[in-house]
Design a protein that fits this description.
- It is built from 15 helices and eleven strands.
- With about 375 residues, the chain is of the alpha+beta class.
- It has a three-stranded antiparallel beta sheet, with no helix packed on it. Strands 1-2 form a two-stranded antiparallel ribbon. It has a two-stranded antiparallel ribbon with strand order 3-4.
- The relative contact order is 0.06.
């Protein structure tokens, strides 16, 4: 009796109030009432509530942290008709980033471990809890619900291969074919125009390829909690559901001030595409036009804060370490030994000056060497 009282008074409060579980980046303290419906649970009567773990714990892992390909062979003793199913796990994991994440298939993910389907769903269909599908039912429901929406093909042979089939599935082709990922082709729009009749500007121009290819923004940055049918359905018109003004601005507000700078997006004419010189004052076309943004903007999705002078990226240039002919001018003997600042005042490399040495010469009428074709 004393041991039970000691447990209730000393040990139980410690477990109830000191237990902490991480949820994403926050910390949540569990109380006894979180799991127990009575004030004093005992071994004989624990008063256990339905487990709230799905709401408490949710851990998403990176696609590369999981397996590349899975072989589903749990039913090899139950059927003599089909070969084990080859499942391209990583490819599906990458696409899940635009949907519900790992939780789309793995409903319960504790820290450091992902629970597989067979850990919760029983292999046999003779089970007491009929509200939870058996393993085969869970597999079929999970796969068919998505595949029916975007392809409409849910026949058995789309996933299962007959055991007596002459052609066998090569696991490597499930993920790659001819060096490329197998994925239904999506025609990505270069530009999308939205009619906004209720706003001051009646038209919003969205350059989709600029965001994905030029700015290297991941699809999941804008596309979240969406089904595969959002991009893959045959009839996309039927999928366009009405959204509130707040929902429409939510995605853009990740990068743009949608509450104050309305005129930045809402215009009465088509807005021109991104021009680095007009937006920043720094012309990249001359020497940096072929570079990707990440060469200079190394912090992902951050494009501000860089200085326009060359030394911020290239360090200190001198006539010994700089190949001047890359500019299109190969310096002659009289100018190759000069310091950069002799011709380029105040780090202005676009318009050199000749007045420091020459009274009657000026650039570009006078070249301090030979003009050459840049490679």
């Amino acid at each position: 009796m004393r041991s039970k009282i000691f447990f209730l008074l000393i040990i139980m409060p410690f477990f109830c109030f000191a237990q902490k579980i991480k949820e994403n980046h926050s910390t949540q303290i569990l109380k006894c009432s979180t799991c127990h419906s009575c004030d004093v649970p005992t071994k004989e009567n624990p008063c256990i509530k339905p487990c709230p773990r799905e709401k408490i714990i949710s851990i998403d892992q990176l696609p590369e942290e999981g397996p590349n390909v899975l072989t589903i062979d749990k039913f090899k003793k139950q059927t003599d008709v089909y070969e084990p199913v080859i499942f391209s796990h990583r490819l599906h994991a990458e696409m899940s980033g635009m949907g519900g994440g790992c939780k789309m298939c793995h409903h319960y993910n504790p820290p450091g471990r992902v629970i597989g389907c067979s850990d919760c769903h029983e292999l046999t269909r003779k089970r007491e809890d009929v509200s939870k599908p058996d393993l085969k039912g869970a597999y079929h429901r999970q796969c068919i619900d998505c595949h029916r929406l975007w392809s409409g093909k849910v026949e058995c042979l789309n996933c299962h291969q007959l055991k007596n089939s002459k052609t066998k599935t090569d696991i490597s082709t499930i993920v790659k074919k001819n060096g490329k990922r197998i994925h239904p082709q999506i025609i990505t729009p270069a530009i999308v125009k939205f009619d906004t009749p209720k706003a001051a500007g009646k038209l919003v121009t969205f350059y989709h390829l600029e965001h994905t290819d030029l700015f290297s923004i991941d699809c999941s940055k804008c596309h979240k909690n969406e089904s595969c049918s959002k991009c893959h359905a045959k009839d996309l018109v039927t999928l366009k559901a009405g959204k509130t003004l707040e929902q429409k601005h939510l995605i853009c507000s990740n990068c743009h001030n949608t509450k104050q700078a309305c005129s930045y997006c809402h215009l009465n004419t088509v807005k021109p595409g991104f021009n680095h010189k007009e937006r920043t004052g720094f012309d990249i076309d001359k020497y940096h036009g072929k570079l990707k943004c990440v060469r200079c903007h190394t912090t992902k999705e951050k494009f501000t804060g860089l200085r326009g002078d060359c030394s911020s990226c290239h360090g200190i240039w001198t006539h010994e370490n700089f190949r001047h002919k890359i500019t299109g001018i190969a310096l002659d003997e009289n100018h190759s030994s000069l310091e950069c600042t002799d011709c380029h005042q105040e780090k202005n490399y676009a318009n050199p000056t000749c007045s420091n040495c020459h009274e009657d010469k000026s650039f570009p009428k006078f070249f301090p060497g030979n003009f050459i074709k840049k490679r």
